[in-house]
Amino acid sequence: MKKILVTGAMGQIGSELVDQLRHTYGENNVIGSDIKQPDNASDGLFEIVDVTDGERLFEVAKKHNVDTIMHLAALLSAKAEENPKRAWDLNMGGLLNALEVARELETQFFTPSSIGAFGPSTPKDQTPQDTLQRPTTMYGVNKVSGELLCDYYYNRFGLDTRGVRFPGLISYVTPPGGGTTDYAVDIYYEAIKQKAYTSFIAEGTYMDMMYMPDALNAIIQLMETDPAKLIHRNAFNISGMSAAPEDFAKAIQTHIPEFKMSYDVDPARQRIAESWPNAIDSTAAIEEWGFKADYDLDRMTKDMLEKIAQK
Ligand code: AKB
Fold first, then answer.
1. Which terminus of the chain is more exposed, N or C, with fewer CB under 10 A?
2. Is 139 annotated in the active site?
3. 241-243 vs 207-211, strand pairing mode
4. Is any ligand 1 atom within 6 A of the Cβ of residue 140?
5. Is 140 part of any domain?
6. Do 134 and 162 reside in the same domain of the chain?
7. pLDDT of residue 42
8. Segments of the chain with pLDDT less than 50
């Protein structure tokens, strides 16, 4: 990776990934792109790109002579469920355009899949790398199709496509928008502001989660791995922890003992959560490219509360 174009650069992952990539590969070697200008326009190379416009995406990638595309622009699960047609157009249309640009310019390619690529018939615990994938959400349908499409471009055109199945990502920098796991970010902000949180996900609902620094390291590590070591490509199970809302509450109470948790379950997001695994198995990622998460729930909670309090 020497010159990298990131789509969706103002989103939850993109905003932090671009900084980390600039730190690692140099300021002038990372081009952020999104549908609108960042607030601080002087913050490095940036292009306005709507990924559903394939010609514009090609023009920008060619202009900057990129050798890697990290395609992040997408609607998350809850938003996708509200507007399935828009989700298909953006998530699949954008991905196809990005893959075509990568094929024409012969770049390396990364795009994230998700635990949302699994469905109710998938084994719920220690969910294997290779297993049944019959998701019941539009987001899940997009993610499985995306994994297959990336494998297709690898097998058919030799394009160096790689991906991970991200769990819920937790960070204090940019809030997520429209995901099912968003409660696990909101809870920390409300713990600092109100010392209380009302969860839209029910008690006892386990999902995989990961702290953002581990997610960013995972992307870079996977992209830097010698391709000869990769048996799987699109996409690797990775997880930092499996937790339910009450586990977050307990972890927060060790720092804020008066913190109170209550529940007002949103049926739409609860349905999505219940269709996903409790805990996925990251063995393939560990064996093939050395994936490792440094943050467990307690270490992440300490850091989140400190950083949000400073904000
Ligand atoms: C979501 O909740 O939609 C995402 C995801 C797990 O892919 N955070």
1. C
2. yes
3. antiparallel
4. no
5. yes
6. yes
7. 62
8. none
